[in-house]
Design goal:
Layout: H1 9-17, E1 22-30, E2 36-42, H2 43-60, E3 67-71, H3 76-87, E4 91-95, H4 101-110, E5 115-118, H5 120-128, E6 138-141, E7 151-152, H6 153-157, E8 174-179, E9 189-193, H7 194-208, E10 215-218, H8 221-224, H9 226-230, E11 233-235, H10 249-259, E12 263-266, H11 268-281, E13 290-293, H12 300-307, E14 315-317, E15 320-322, E16 325-330, H13 333-345, E17 350-355, E18 360-364, E19 386-391, H14 403-409, E20 410-413, E21 416-427, E22 433-438, E23 443-444, E24 449-450, H15 452-460, E25 465-473, E26 480-487, H16 493-508, E27 519-521, H17 537-548
Parallel strand pairs: 1-11, 3-4, 3-5, 4-8, 5-6, 6-7, 10-11, 10-12, 12-13, 13-14, 26-27
Antiparallel strand pairs: 1-2, 8-9, 15-16, 16-17, 17-22, 18-19, 19-21, 20-21, 21-22, 23-24, 25-26
Helix pairs in contact: 1-2, 2-3, 10-11, 11-12, 12-13
Amino acid sequence: MSEAFNIAELLSNAARAHPHRRAVVFPHTRDRFGRVAYTHLTFAQLERESSRLARALGAYGLAPGMRTIVMVRPSLDFFVLTFALFKAAAVPVVVDPGMGLWRMLHCLQSSRPQAFIGIPPAHALRKCFPKFFRSVSVWVTVGKRWFWGGTTLAHLSRSPFAPLTPTTTGADDTAAILFTTGSTGPAKGVVYTHANFRAQIHQIREAFGIRPGEIDLPTFPLFALFDPALGMTAVIPDMDPTRPAHVDPRKIIEAVTNHGVTNMFASPALLDRVGRYGRAHGIKLPSLKRVVSAGAPVYPENIARFAGMLAAGSEIHTPYGATEAVPLTSIASAEILGKTRELSEQGYGMCVGRPLAGTRLRIITISDGAIENWRPELEVPDGEIGEIAVCGDLVTRRYFENPAADRLAKIADGDRFWHRMGDLGWIDKRGRLWFCGRKSQRVVMQRQMLYTVPCEAIFNRHPAVRRSALVGIGRPPHQQPVMCVELRRRVKRAAKAKIQRELLALAKQSPLTAAISTILLHTDFPVDIRHNSKIFREKLAVWAQKRLGPDAETRR
């Protein structure tokens, strides 16, 4: 049996250490002059209200271990609910809305949920599609309850308060199930244990030098939940978290300046939008000590633009990881802009830094099949591109009731295991990891293999290119490489033809891209909703195949 530990204990510790410090701040409304009125919970209030709700949920029928769908917008209630569920030893089930309605519904159904806590539109959804929620017996509405059953959060929150000790859980007990987006196929439920969360919080604190009393602006809701455990104040941004590429940069800057924000998490798309606005208007954000950007490759020009808004000594960090394991490595803007940027633009890949303390990282031979047991000969020499495999306390051990996915992603190694990231990369002589793209998106030809990030870097150097995406047409090992290109602005047909000729000439200058002879211009790449940065190359491959015709892979 594992040691007793509940992740909610970290909130209790923070509440004892600084009870009157703000834990969560929410932009409640604006007055007639457009000024923001905020509401907040202190650490003592968050501790008290989450304990009250945990007890009330238990009395209502929520038992330890019950898988509980949580569909609540970022708010004070979101924090209270999540820590109440941890204290009650229930298991929050969180599905990324970016995967689309049907995939989301199938994820929810596959988790075999027993409880459902959501806002009115979420309950309306489950009434429209009842077959996906037949296993649920506990219903709670956050907001006004209409024609559906169950109780409301407001009713439960009026329960009498009594001190509560979090339900005893083992460190290896399931704490939450998070369904990842994925671009194709069924999404996988990543099982987080209380020990995984504890290791993750420790890694974040030590890697970025975060200390209690800092103020965070987390623009991705799930990352906001780390703040109370880290002793940081979480300022919830005034934005739609599912559309970071369309955020109003003025509201992000307003939040930073109103609260003296010291730390911010931002997807590359949000970083780009706010950075462009900041440069155009000469804005500075002197309170920001660090910015953390992840979720997709963060290009150096994006980093340089946003860095211009920061004070001397402040850094932009670009950690590498995935839902199954994050953060694993990290690199700061000074090293990127001063040392690795030029190499990335030459096609070396995207440098994502050195492994963080407590993380073991290896590069293994590329293969698409399962690997049952770890063996030394799997590893490739430094400098050679292979698949990234990791081992450590923050690495999740399994997917929810998905042994097929476990076989493909996990490698047994005695009493521990390695997780295959599904990403490709290589290690340089300084011990830094260079990310080269997804394994499933590599292009396999008869005589060579092409990797997305290095090849795309060559094309992204053209001033008219906003971004590019390498796709393969046909079946390995006889794929035809096609480069899809999205331009920075609309141009006339003659200009398009000229740009395509210039891109082809650029491709011939590099051995990485010399085999690419087909370039297609696309008006708007399909990207994930969560970060608005991760390109769905699988969808682009289908589009390219239609554009080129059924016999495209046989033409050279």
